[in-house]
Amino acid sequence: MRKSRSTFRITGLSLASVLLAAGLSTGAAGPASAQTSAVRMDYTCTTSAGPTVALTVWVVGGLPDDGAGPNSVSYSSYSYIDVDLDLRELRPALPVGSGVRLDGDSTATLDAHLTGPDGTRTTRAAFTLAPTWITDTRSAAVRARGAFPAQYLNTPGAYDLHVDDLALTLRPERADGTPLGTITASCSHDPAQNDVVGTIQSQAAHFDRPIRPDALRVVSATPTSVTLAWDARSWWNPTAGYNVYLDGGHVVFATEKQTTITGLTPDTQHRAKVVTVDVRNSWSNPSEGLIFTLPRA
């Protein structure tokens, strides 16, 4: 006889009581903020420039909080895992001289695997580098933002996120925009090193919430502003509006599926997300993050 999976259903209004019963605090009817965890990785990189590079990387994961409790998701829903990189000591791969610039033309990929109750699955995150001027590769920190593809953690249980190999494609340029060629690097770490960014708990539960927005996109951008748009549809109750977040902080409540954010800094990288709010103040899970870079002044 087939054994049926035991699940329970939580509505938006009963979620707060579940959190309290679990000993977790809850505020308004909004979703829990993503829990940040990090691991330091020491990579040895083979570069197209010739020398071998010792690279220190902080891998910072924004693990989803889509269930009842930190770093939890429903087994029946997809989830997004954000990940950022803080790369240090890019020497001697870069021809620094009087200083070079790296920006979104430079990219990276990070291999990873999830180990859980259904075995091991591999995944890969793609990154774009934030605009960075480098004058000293010893002290300069190059940052990049990315995300793993949507994950369905179909079997309830704990899933550990392990970091694997890193690949870089760097396209440095001079201050006047003159390109300095392309440098690639293939990086591996000591397999004995701790490589777990964090653990995600897949729960045998359904969470009845408004449908999360999707297709978040940039409509237009200036050096100090950006106009975002997204797609969304209503749930059981009519939609009241949308909370828009930039780099984890709330910036605006929009009543339409589009908004303009002003007062930003030129030549900076950001991650935006949107949450649907219905007329009963139930909140959806956050949309997939959108990473964008504003133009130079």
UniProtKB/TrEMBL annotation:
GO BP term, pick one: polysaccharide catabolic process
Transmembrane stretches, start-end: none
Keywords: Carbohydrate metabolism, Glycosidase, Hydrolase, Polysaccharide degradation, Signal
Gene3D superfamilies (UniProt xref): Immunoglobulins
UniProt KW Hydrolase keyword: yes
Gene Ontology terms for molecular function: hydrolase activity, acting on glycosyl bonds
Signal peptide: 1-34
Top-level taxon of the source organism: Bacteria
Keyword Glycoprotein (UniProt): no
Record-annotated Fibronectin type-III domain positions: 212-297
The name this protein goes by in its record: Fibronectin type-III domain-containing protein
Protein source organism: Saccharothrix saharensis
